[in-house]
Amino acid sequence: MSGPFASAQDLQDLTGLVVARARAQATLQVASDVIREECGQELSQVVGDVETLPGVDLATLVLSERPVTAITQILVSGSPVTDFTFSRWGVITRSSEVFWTSGAVVTYTHGFTEADWEFGVLRSICVDAAVRSLSLNRDGASEAMGSNLMETAGFSPEVFLTEGERSRLASFGKALVG
Question: pTM, whole model, 2 decimals?
């Protein structure tokens, strides 16, 4: 499991909202998990991830995680392959136009670093979703049971993404290959 896109300090700095550190971190983790689920991607940088791809009668393979920032090794039937190029979208092409009929084991780096502007977008959406869950329900109003807020009555706050956030995340998803 990867950590949250934002810290409790980010939440406080960006919103002025003061929340117990453990509660803020837990809510930010849930918001990050919701974002990853929406995109079908890890999104945070992973160095040295290993993926086994099945053989195909094509000169291209497609890795499951994006963006791909480095490929450190490709093995086909245990032997290294060096005649390839790759795109940020995870498309690996044999330079020799040899097909990947035996498949490949690829060791690569993917995802965004905290210095990437895309990570800033993820951080912003994460904080917004967390703040919403800490203060409002899906309809934009605090829910109460009698005089108690729902969460104090034993109901946990809901973390969700708005349609606008989903739209902003669309370019981070698995479906985008090119």
Answer: 0.84
